Structures are given as C-alpha cells and as structure tokens.
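Quarterly update from the structural biology core.
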Amino acid sequence: QVIYITASTAGSSASLLYKSTNMGVTWTQLEIPNTEAFSPAVRIVADPLVSGTIYSLTSDDEFFKSTDFGGSWTKIGGPGLTQTSGSVVPQTTILNIKVDPRNPLIWYFGTDHNAFPETCPLTNGGLCGLFKSTDGGATFTGLSIPINYVSSVSFGAVSSTVYATGNVAGLGPTLIRSTDS
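Predicted structure, tokenized:
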C-alpha cells in the first residue's frame, strides 16, 4: 500500500519526494538529509526483494538508501558516479537508475554525455552511456557501448539479459541487448 513519487510544485522545477501509506489518498513529503531543504529527488527505486528499502537519486547526483520506508537515509554514493578505481566520472548527467530485480546489489545507471562528447566511450574507454554497479550503487564501471545517451534500461526474462535504448551515432534511436549481464 506504500507509494513513492517525485513531483514538482507549481512554479518550481525542484522535484520533491513524497510517500503515501494509504494508496494515494494522502501524501507526506520526505526529507533526504544533507541535501538542500527541499529534498531534490529526481529518481526513486524500491528494492525488489526487501520491503521498506528504497533508493533515491538527488538533483546533485547523490545516491541515498533508506531501509525504513524513507524515515531515515544513508548516503551511498555521489555526487556523480564513483568508479571502482575511486575517481568520479566527469561531466555526466544521470538519466535513470535501475536495480536488477533478481539481485539488489546490481544497478545500472543510464547517463547523458551529449554535451561533452570528448569524454564518451568512442574516445575515452567507456566513460559515458551506461554504468553498472555490483556493490549496491557504491561504485560503478563504465560499460563500453556505442551510446553516449542511454534513455532507458530494462531487464529480460532470462537473468543475464539487459536492454538499453539510446542514440547511436549514424543509426539514431537504437535498442541494444546484452546476454551476459
């Protein structure tokens, strides 16, 4: 019966995080600590296996986790995407976040690098487009795909199948598939 949404109030571009415990009849704004006062959540994802565990990505590209339905939060990443080497991926806008429905430690972040093509996979070894985490979103590895703008990520019925959509140079809007995670 718990529903989470991000929404903007009239006249504001800031996304706020809200929770309803009665199927949307009433809503309560959730505050994410150590961020701006208005809880600038742009993405929210529920853990597919653990009730009450939710994740939020803020407008500052910070990644937070709550294990008590949004009552308290722990920062687990950001700002930006931290690579397994410890460095932060430069000039990246995070567009979407997806958790593997079979393993909550595996995350995919789709990003936009259109404004900074000089740091994309064709010239910089996979530092844009699609990133994967195997430690619950704490660190990420850039996946070498020919897309610098990944608009969506989805999982197939077979556990190792992952789909991504975006614009491929010379092809335009494209759907790509991986069968090995």
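The first helix runs from residue 121 to 124.
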